[in-house]
Amino acid sequence: MKTMSLNKVGGISLCVGAVLLTIPFILQITFGGTPEEGTLIWRYFSEEILSGGNLSLLYPLLSIFGLSLSIFGIYTLNGSLQSEKSDGLLGLGTVLTILGSIGFMFVWSLDYHILWGQSVVGNTEWTDAALGMTMEIGIV
């Protein structure tokens, strides 16, 4: 079996991660459609996710896997660039990018928990959860 260098694996991870992040985005836009005039956009997207059933899990799983590959690629690229010439801002940018990506993965998984918990709680609790989801997305 032929071994691959760390830089080559990092580059492949960046490319594959970008593709895996783009595919769900394009599919959601082309197949998802647009909401009707006057409907709440968060309500529309939550109903679309719930009506998709288990298949709706494919979009976040692809995106999170793509994001994980991209994080590895960015980390590898940073290591390669820092070995040539040390730069503090590049290191800070890499750390902040990785932390932001990990936070995005957590927030996205929380959104799905909120949506699937809608059938368990009543309407009042669902309104509170929907507001919480809006706040999470606003933070990201």
Structural write-up:
This protein has 140 residues and is an all-alpha fold. The protein has one domain (6-139). The chain has helices spanning 6-32, 41-52, 58-84, 88-116, 123-139. Helix 1 runs antiparallel to helix 3, helix 3 packs antiparallel against helix 4 and helix 4 runs antiparallel to helix 5 (123-139). It starts with 5 loop residues before the first helix and ends with a helix.
Summarize the entry for a quick read.
The chain is mainly alpha-helical and 140 residues long. It has helices spanning 6-32, 41-52, 58-84, 88-116, 123-139.
Topology:
Layout: H1 6-32, H2 41-52, H3 58-84, H4 88-116, H5 123-139
Please tally the helical runs, counting DSSP H or I stretches of 4 or more residues: 5
Shape: elongated
The biggest beta sheet is recorded as:
none
Spatial gap, N to C terminus: 42 Å
Summarize this structure as a short list of keywords or feature phrases:
single chain, 140 residues, mainly alpha, 5 helices, 80% helix
